[in-house]
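Hi, here's the filled form for the chain we discussed.

Project: internal
Contact: R.S.
Residues: 203
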Amino acid sequence: MSRHPTGVSDIKTIFILRQVVFLGLVVVWLTGCDFYQDEYGNRKLLPAPPPTIVPYKLSGFPYGIKRGDELQIVAGETSTFCRLMGVRAPNQDDACFDESTEFLNSLVAGQVVHGTVVGHDAQMRASFRGYVGDLDLNLEMILHGYARYDETEFPGSEAFREAESQARRAGRGMWQSTPGRSSRLNSNDGRPATSQKMEQDQS
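And the returned structure, exactly as it came back:
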């Protein structure tokens, strides 16, 4: 039986080990990345943003709205997966899930979203207090009845608590007698109410 010289065998072993290490590094790099489609349908690869000291300001265009309390914010070549702080939208199997998702999309579509990231949850989603102009997205979702106030995540907010009380009393969104029937509010013709409007209702 013929055998390779020792030098040739060592070279082959080194080559294989280098290939294994290279493939391992590729896998690690890909697992730390996120994908999104731009406005032209091109699939783009975005590195996961590094841990950042909170709180910090965040601004960009919304993307990937799949439920009423989550969205991605794309700024340049980075994407941040955000969850609206203190807001608990219906789950996929719950009544009003589609309406809640559609309503958040209607608030942010084509707009620049800005706000503050105050922390991260167990799934590393950014806890976000978001705005479009002066419109408070977190408050709007609760005020229109498309989300509950999650006091465990944002305790002591009288504005959020009062917004949910108003939504309940008015039978808006998920508080309708037959939730899930309408994707817009009859009481306000589907137009976003502002925080000023809520204050007027209180007076």
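Let me know if anything looks off before we file it.
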